[in-house]
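Q: Hi! First time doing this. I have a protein sequence and I read that you can turn it into a structure. Is that right? Here it is:
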Amino acid sequence: MVTRGWFVAVLLSTALAGPARAAAGGPCAPPASMDDGWQTAEPEAAGFDAGALCAVLQSVAEGGANIHGVLVERRGRLVAELYRRGKDRSIWSLFARETRFGPAVVHDLRSVSKSIVGLLFGIAAQQRTIDLTASALSFYPEYAHLRSPERAAITLEHVLTMSTGLEWNESVTSYGSLANDETRLYWDWAPYRYVLSRPIVAKPGMQFNYNGGGTALLADIIVRTTRTQLRQFARSALFEPLGIREWEWVADPYGRPLAFAGLRMRPRDLAKIGRLVLAHGQWEGRQIVPAEWVTQSLRPRIATSDGLHYGYQWWIGTVDWKGRRVTWGAGIGNGGQRLWVVPELDLSVVTTAGAYNDPQIRRPLGDVFRGIVAALRE
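A: Yes, that's right. Below is the predicted 3D structure, encoded as C-alpha cells:
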C-alpha cells in the first residue's frame, strides 16, 4: 500500500526531476497517440505543475498498491496516462492472474457500471418520458402480489438514490458470499422479484443503503420501456456516439448483463464518459445525455454513511484545492475502479486496480486523486 509518508517523499523528490523523468519516458511519458478520438496536451498547457503531476505518477509506479492504471484528462485532452502490470481477476474468475495493462486493454469497472447505467436511464427517461415519481412496482404488473401501500410508495427516484427503504446487505468485504444480497442477483432466476420483495425497514427517501439490486431494476426498466436489450441500447445510445468500440458487459448464467457490476472497458473510454459528464452530456457538439439529467445526477440528494453524498447513481464529495473545497462526482467500483469528475476544475481522473474486496485501496487512491488535484495550478 502507498503510505502517506512515502507518497509525500516521492512527491518532493520527483517534483525537482519531473520534466527530466518525463523526457526519459517511464511513468511520466506523455499519453500515447491513438486513433480513438483523444487529443493530448502537455501538463503545463493544461494548467498543471508538471513536476508535481509527475511525482504522483511516480508514486504509483513505485508503490506497493495493486493499481493498474491512472489517466488524467482536462479540458477535453489527455494529460497523463500510466499503466502497470498487476494481478487481476474478472467477476467470474476464481483466481487472479498477472496482466500487463495498457491503453488497448479493457478492464473491469465493477460498480462504476452503476453510474453508466444511471446515464443510460437518463437517456431512456427523456426518450420515453419516464416519470421519476412513478412507483417502481408499476413497471412489474406480474408482481401484483407484492403490492401494498408501503411498497408502492417506493419511486424510481428512491431507486436511483439507493434510498428505497428495502432491507439489503451489500458490504465490500462480503462480495461473493451468500451473506451478500448482491450474490443472489447473479444466480436468481427472478432477480427483480427478489429485489422488490425484500422487507421494508425504513421509509423511502430517508436512509441511504447501498443496493446493486436497484441498479438491476433500473436496467430492466430501460429494457421494458425502450423494448431494446441493455447491450444494444448502451451501444446505440451512448457508446457508439462516443466512439467506444472495445467493451464487454459480462452476463449472469442466464445471459442477462450484470448491470450493477459487469461492464469492462478501456480506461481511455471511461475517460470519455468523464468528459461527457463535464460537458453537460455533450460529445463533439452532440447532446448524448440530457444536460439536466447530468446536473441532477451530480446533485447531492442523500447523505451516505461515510461522509459523502449520493445522487442518481453517482457519488458526490469534496476535495481541497488552493485552500478551499471543490465538489467532485464519481463512479466508484470494487477493487479500485474510479471515475472522478471535478466540474469546477474541468478535470476528470480515471483509476483501475485489482484490490477486489479490499477496502484498504481507498487510501492510496485518495492520495493519488488529491495529489493530482493539488498539482493543478490554475
